[in-house]
Amino acid sequence: MHAGATLLPLVLDGVGYAINGTPLVNELTVTLSAGSRTVILGPNGAGKSLTLRLCHGLLAPTSGTIRWAGAFAGDPMRRQAMVFQRPVMLRRSALANVAYGLKLAGMAKAERTERARAMLDRVGLLALADRPARSMSGGEQQRVALARAWALQPEVLFLDEPTASLDPAAARAVEAIIRAIHEAGTKIVMTTHNLAQARRLADEILFLDRGRLVEGSPADLFFRAPATPEAAAFLREESL
Amino acid sequence: MYDLSAAFGAALRMVAGFDPALMGIVALSVKVSLAAVAIATVLGLPLGAAVALGRFPGRRGMIVVLNALMGLPPVVVGLLVYLLLSRSGPLGPLGLLFTPPAMIIAQAILITPIVAALARQVVEDAWTEYQEQLRSLGAPPRRAVWTLLWDTRFSLVTVVLAGFGRAAAEVGAVIMVGGNIDGVTRVMTTAIALETSKGDLPLALGLGLILITLVLAANAAAYTIKEVAQRRLG
User: Fold this and answer.
1) In this structure, how many other beta carbons lie within 10 angstroms of the beta carbon of residue A109?
2) Residues B15, B16, B19, B21: what is their CA dihedral angle, to the nearest 10 degrees?
3) Gap from B195 CA to chain A (nearest CA, Å)
């Protein structure tokens, strides 16, 4: 999808984030490369969402550095997108919500309407294009949010617990869309505390506990033979 | 001693009969307050939004001042505008004192802080919700401000109408800079004050009824707009 210069890999070097001197993320050193689906796994309060926001640039680290190591020289925000746990729908139609992101990206009106319709079609919501986004169900809103992010054709898509407030059917629909976005060539970085979802979606696991990266390994290895007692304990508890 | 029910009956007859003197006063009131509210909206909404989103030194102080200015005494505003527009004042050569534009200026000064302070609250609440998403989508600050104003437009209608209610109901500022000149700068509130002191209770009562109805109607409209919008757009 992206010919030429890329943003990735994303290199985190000794990244820390503290609020009023309380460290919430510590000494995070990891490289996120193109291609794979990276799932940031861990219990509540592990620092998963903070890590995602640091990667996306919504927060600035209080120590260490985060940099896009690819050759792309423009505004990195233009090549990445994020979907939040609770979708933020603007008070306008589903179609206008998707087109809004494209407008910010500088796309002409006719083109962005066409692209927005195509994206709503891909997430199965074309029939509801003219519905006010806020009147839609939680699952539908999250799919609009995915369409809005996907429309930007990001090189990297960050997702923060995208199914945490959805019922199982809506969660499955969202997972299917995430798979489709990945297959279309976008790097996926998502957080979850849901082990079953991590098993279904992850190529690579970053296991966080109390603000530290405890274990980073390929998903099959992580689930088969976790290398650290913390990860082993998390897997045991979650599967009970 | 005036018979209250007789005065009331006479007042109703004047209103129902569209008494020309009465209607002229009402029309001027509405014109002046609408113009003031238009100015306050153009100045107050962006100002409120800027204070809501901006991170600049003195922001907290500015919020306190804006909130305090919501209770600005009309007579103080009247005095201030009087000094500005009086013959020896800095804007004296414009010859605006005791004209409707002077009243518009006074009312606009009175309600701009109200519109700005209430809008700041509305926009700041929306910003809390939208901030990460808008930044993620790469919205520059100016665009973010417009998106927030647009998305809170129905709440802001209520804000603007609160300003209108305040402008239409105040008497102290317009009487000082307008002078309550019959047929020129006499509005509902100044007329009520004058007619009551003269003892012409039917006219004062009739104007009072219209004033209350007007303010009620404005608020009913605001409420309906908000309700309908919320049902339709969430």
Assistant:
1) 10
2) 20
3) 48
A53–B132 CB contact, under 8 Å? yes
Q: Quick check: A131 and A97 in contact, CB under 8 A?
A: no
Substitution target from A49, A55, A104 for chain B, most B beta carbons within 10 A: A104
Model pLDDT for residues A74-112, shown as the tens digit of each residue: 888 889 999 999 999 999 999 999 999 999 999 999 999
Q: Do B138 and A56 make contact, defined as CB atoms within 8 angstroms?
A: no
Name the residue with tokens 């304990």. A233
Name the DSSP class of A30.
E
DSSP output for B43-103: HHHHHHHHHHH---TTHHHHHHHHHHHTT--HHHHHHHHHHHHSTTSTTGGG--TTSHHHH
For residue B139, what is the nearest residue in chain A, using CA coordinates?
A104
Closest partner residue to A104 among B130, B138, B233, by Cβ? Answer: B138
- Structural domains present in chain A: 10-239 (3.40.50.300)
Report A:63-92 residues touching B (Cβ under 8 A).
Answer: 75, 77-78, 81-82, 84, 88-92
- State pLDDT tens for residues A98-149: 999 999 999 999 999 999 999 999 999 999 999 999 999 999 999 999 999 9
Q: Which residue is closest to A131 within chain B, CA to CA?
A: B233
- In this structure, which long-range contacts are made by residues B194-203, counting pairs with CB atoms below 8 Å and at least 24 apart in sequence? B199/B2, B201/B2, B201/B7, B201/B11, B202/B7, B202/B8, B202/B10, B202/B11, B202/B14, B203/B11, B203/B14, B203/B21, B203/B22
Could you say which of B136, B139, B150 has the minimum Cβ distance to residue A81? B136
Q: Which amino acid is at B34?
A: L
Name the DSSP letter for residue A127.
G
- HSE of B61, CA atoms in CB hemisphere, 13 A: 3
User: Which residues in B lie closer than 8 A to residue A88 (C-beta atoms)?
Assistant: 129-130, 132-133
d(CA A197, CA B136): 25
Extended beta strands in A120-172, E state: 156-160
Domains of chain B: 4-233 (1.10.3720.10)
- The answer to whether the CB of A230 falls within 8 A of the CB of A213 is no
Find the CB nearest A104 among B130, B137, B232: B137
Sequence-distant (≥ 6) Cβ neighbours of residue A76 within 8 angstroms:
A7, A57, A68
Chain B closest CA to A151's CA: distance in Å?
11
Q: How far from B176 is each of A57, B96, B114, B144, CA to CA, in Å?
A: 55, 13, 21, 41
